[in-house]
């Protein structure tokens, strides 16, 4: 049975717009979704990211959380016939406040898969308070429970397989330990790329405030160099058929360019398409 990826809606957040695209729409408030991803079709369900803990915790970053009953993780999973205890692995693209806030709702025999460098980075004090104390302390507690955590060393090993058809690779951007989750689908390789890309339109299609051909724009929130972030985005565009960021709708890629925006199941029907270089609303 082919693997499929289902997008989970964990609610929205409101924040200053230039957080997403460097120097773009400074001072304006922007509302964006927070997505997780459920991978089905393997021996057991696998989850990528768990969203943010609650609306109140987003205030620590001067952001507004907009999470309602339907967005609760148990309700999002239930739409696909999955319970919390059914999840075998939780993989995190990284551990920022909007990605790892619900891990403590899962039993200790659900293994959380982390890049070890991201765990180290989360307690370094760099990019604080994007790594909130209750989320990170829970992950530290998991270290002392058998099989509750699986650490990857992606900078040294390269790709590591989690289940057949699903593996992790170092992202090389956003945070020092960010990783991409690659899924082999019937229609091609899909990459869940976390926050390496925030905005498909403004960073890649229209690439605002960038002059050179096929040169992606960087985000306003990264700990890597601008060159490293650009290179990480180019790598995504040149290696995968589907790109799934956490704060924007998926994109389909051919020959290094975005050619469409799929529905919210990947692979799924192409509900919209793009002529080359034409603007597409985010």
From TrEMBL:
A GO term, aspect molecular function: metal ion binding
Q: Which domain of life is it from?
A: Bacteria
**UniProt cross-references to Gene3D superfamilies, sorted A to Z:** Ribonuclease Z/Hydroxyacylglutathione hydrolase-like
CDD domains reported in the protein's UniProt record: AHL_lactonase_MBL-fold
User: Which residue positions does the secretion signal occupy?
Assistant: none
Transmembrane intervals: none
The UniProt keywords, alphabetically, are: Hydrolase, Metal-binding, Zinc
* Metallo-beta-lactamase domain segment(s): 32-247
* PANTHER family, alphabetized: BLR3078 PROTEIN, QUORUM-QUENCHING LACTONASE YTNP-RELATED-RELATED
> What does the sequence similarity comment in the record state about its family?
Belongs to the metallo-beta-lactamase superfamily.
**What name is this protein filed under?**
N-acyl homoserine lactonase family protein
